[in-house]
Task: structure prediction
Amino acid sequence: VTVIFELPVNEPYFKEIEKKLKALCGTGGTYKNNMIEISGDHREKIKGFLEKTGFKVKLAGG
Result:
């Protein structure tokens, strides 16, 4: 599972980001508790997408 956390509170915006990430990765996922969870290890794809969207990304775990 790939988890995006420490997101600001903006549920409608991040639910839309979650949908885009699921489509990008071709897998399932969910948005809950201000975190996005995407099934599988898609860190590099997600990192690139989020950086293009304007986020600063720090990878954790491994």
Q: What stands out?
A: The chain is about 40% helix and 20% strand.
